[in-house]
Amino acid sequence: MTIEQAGLLDEIASWATSVRLDDLPTEVVHHAKRSFLDFLGVTLRGAHSSIARQVRHSVARLNGADPCSVLGADLHLSPAHAALANGTAAFALELDDGHTHAHIHPGATCIPAIVAIGEWVGSSTRALLESIVVAYEISCRLGIASAPELCNRGFHGLSTVGVFGATAGAAKLLGVGLESLRSALSLAGVNAGGFLENTPSWLDAVRVQVGRTNADGVLYSLMASEGIAGPSNLFESSRGWSQSFLGRQLDRSLVTGNLGTSWSMLGTYVKLYPFCRSLHSAIDAAQSIAQKHEPRIREIREIRVETARDIAEGFSAQRWSSPLEAQWSLPFAVAITLCHGSPHFVADTSTYVDDPQVHDLAKRVHVRESGECNCVWPDRLASRVTVLLDHGTHSELVITPRGEPALTLSDSELESKFRKLTVPVIGYSHAARIAHDIWLLDEDRPMMSLGLGSLRIIEDSSSSHAERE
After folding, report:
1. Can you say how many angstroms the Cα of residue 265 is from the centroid of all Cα atoms in its chain?
2. Do residues 139 and 164 lie in contact, with contact meaning Cβ atoms separated by under 8 Å?
3. Is 278 exposed, middle or buried (0-12, 13-18, 19+ CB in 10 A)?
4. For residue range 355-406, what is the model confidence (pLDDT) as tens digits?
5. Do you find a cis peptide bond into 405, omega within 30 degrees of 0?
6. Torsion sign across C-alpha atoms 362, 365, 366, 370
7. How do strand 392-398 and strand 300-307 relate by DSSP bridges?
């Protein structure tokens, strides 16, 4: 059977099984290291969140003596349950990486499944990198090919698309052959699902959904290795994945065109702020105004945020009752930036969610639709922030938020984010060691040498370790 005759699923699986680290471009391998570093940082800090604790406690009741680390906790679980716990923690803070055009967060939806399988089978760090590359590339390509219909029809790409990446990465690391990897992907697609709803009351459930996506990736890879098969025409069938979730066939060229020579995964962004990505350009604009002009809060009469229609309609709430709600409010994001500086980490939202000054300023933030921002949506998440003072006006337009590939963070800036997230909760020495080791992942060492299971949360997160940053 030629490639032209093969189904899309066969072509994806054939490529995934052929990937070898020595054949990958240097920038792709380095990007995988950066992705793993960012994933570990947000997951270790996310493990301190209430939702991550609740999920850990729930699944711990079902496990005995198990081999896989729960990051940040003195706990080991089965591969599927560890992937569930770590996936939930990875998505708990709104700080994990993403891909604007694919509408997914590949780190949170793929890496926990890969880490769980890697620990279970005793993989090498080189095999870990190979699997991250496979998972990211498949997720990003399928996400791009599924936009915008997937979101418009109410389905969440993190589970409906991300499950393919989690499964492919886990199966790759498990070392299955072509037929088993194809079957694993088919099982993932047949059982995919998840609603896209971003209102605050849904957010805990969505975080668990990401954890479940990783658990499913582990299970489907193991099921396929035992001989359970799925349909080969998953994408082409009239009642298959494409027609059911998109109402159309996938553009095959977007999924497999130049696969292995052109890399969609290089389009992932890094988050600097614990807010929905749609808010980041407004935060950058507000930060620029604060740094250039240092406006006095009491002299601000009004703040206008002009942005794309979808952002204006979904994120304009001037009131919030919890940190989760605040993370989805443009008025809060802009107000906290002008009052206290850029909200780098989730602790900032928790600290200032009841701040009277922030609440008062947020009442003066008015969000409206902008034609100039609509013109570049959804490829770019542009926002213009205008601060009207008693004497004068300051305005900044940001087309591309920091952290996108066009404005990427340097390695040192990414490591700084990692340290700021992890030093307060695991201590300086552990944070420094793991950061050092991640840049050396392409050396042939056992995954166990990373010591992920020894990374314990310091329950008193006000520890003086943070002062070493």
Report:
1. 12
2. yes
3. buried
4. 999 999 999 999 999 999 999 998 899 999 999 999 999 999 999 999 999 9
5. no
6. negative
7. unpaired
